[in-house]
Amino acid sequence: MKFNNFFIVILLLSLANISLAKTFSRCSLARAMYALGIPKSELARWTCIAEHESKYRTDIIGPANSDGSND
């Protein structure tokens, strides 16, 4: 019985993670960043970084950096 409950909790958590993921377009990401206060002069740089790091997907976590952190 405990295993079934554990499995159900893990399944629900994994589904919650999937449902929160989003794929932006280049323009929609730029608009969202601008709305959050990113200056227009920096939008091109940040959208380029997002494109190369994750293809604009919010569920992507890159490989670990040399200091153990993730992007």
UniProtKB/TrEMBL annotation:
One Pfam family of this chain: Lys
Alphabetized UniProt keyword annotations: Signal
Any one Gene Ontology molecular-function term assigned to this protein's record: lysozyme activity
Coiled coil spans: none
Top-level lineage group: Eukaryota
Signal peptide: 1-21
UniProt xrefs under InterPro entries: Glyco_hydro_22, Lysozyme-like_dom_sf
Protein known as: Lysozyme
Organism lineage: Eukaryota, Metazoa, Ecdysozoa, Arthropoda, Hexapoda
